[in-house]
Specification:
The chain is α/β, with parallel strands linked by helices. It is built from 6 helices and 5 strands; from the N terminus they run H-E-H-E-H-E-H-E-H-E-H. A 5-stranded parallel β-sheet has the order 2-1-3-4-5, with helices on both faces. Helix 2 (57-70) packs across helix 6 (212-221) and helix 3 (92-109) crosses helix 4 (122-131).
Length: 224
């Protein structure tokens, strides 16, 4: 089955990425305490990749740092989507639910905060679900599916950036499909087997140090 093949690719990519995954995760503000802190100008809500420790992950932190540098004195906080990020791809749906909850909280308590939503690898699939895009393609069906983000919250998301997105492999990049088309950038490294027909699993493991980070940060900075 194509889903089994995808899981094998995900395991291979995560295996070579594991040493980098030990990088310390960023501090995460629980959704319930959003009102206890001053509302930031921008919040980066990011879903980490498979096997990374809780937090925004190394790609999400790199994006947040680059965005902060581009926004001058504007305040930027981060929220790491709470989900297992294990080899059980079905559990990614819980990440979509958590991210939607965080967006709901921020919309209610910090309505003027611009939200930058993002994800890497399996975390990008979390974003796919929020966009109403099937992460593993229409032919596979609702594997790991979750409800899309409610229409009333779409306007609170200013920009979307995903890296190594599995939906792109099946012809559904969030930049062109789903609820975030027009406000999203979908980035895939040459040869990355997760987001393309490439066969180099190592191409999936260095997004945090790639030119895609400043590209995504520049895209987001232009929309917040």
């Amino acid at each position: 089955m194509r889903s089994d093949r995808f899981r094998r690719l995900l395991r291979a990519a995560a295996a070579v990425a594991l040493p980098a995954a030990t990088v310390a995760a960023s501090v995460v503000l629980p959704a319930a305490t959003a009102s206890a802190q001053p509302c930031p100008d921008v919040e980066v809500i990011f879903a980490r990749g498979t096997s990374e420790p809780p937090g925004v992950g190394r790609v999400g932190q790199a994006l947040a740092d680059a965005l902060t540098n581009q926004l001058g004195g504007r305040t930027v906080t981060t929220y790491g989507v709470n989900y297992p990020a294990t080899y059980d791809f079905l559990e990614a749906a819980s990440g979509a639910t958590d991210a939607a909850g965080r967006i709901t909280t921020m919309a209610a308590q910090c309505p003027n905060t611009s939200i930058v939503l993002g994800g890497y690898s399996q975390g990008a699939a979390v974003v796919d679900m929020l966009a109403g895009v099937p992460p593993l393609g229409n032919k596979i069906g609702g594997i790991g599916s979750a409800p899309p983000l409610p229409s009333g919250l779409i306007g609170n998301v200013s920009a979307v950036a995903v890296f190594g997105n599995p939906a792109a492999k099946f012809g559904n990049p969030v930049s062109a499909a789903g609820l975030f088309s027009g406000k999203a950038i979908d980035l895939c490294a040459d040869g990355d087997p997760i987001c393309s027909d490439g066969r180099n699993p190592f191409a999936h493991t260095h997004y945090e140090s790639s030119p895609f980070i400043p590209q995504a940060a520049g895209f987001a900075a232009g929309r917040v």
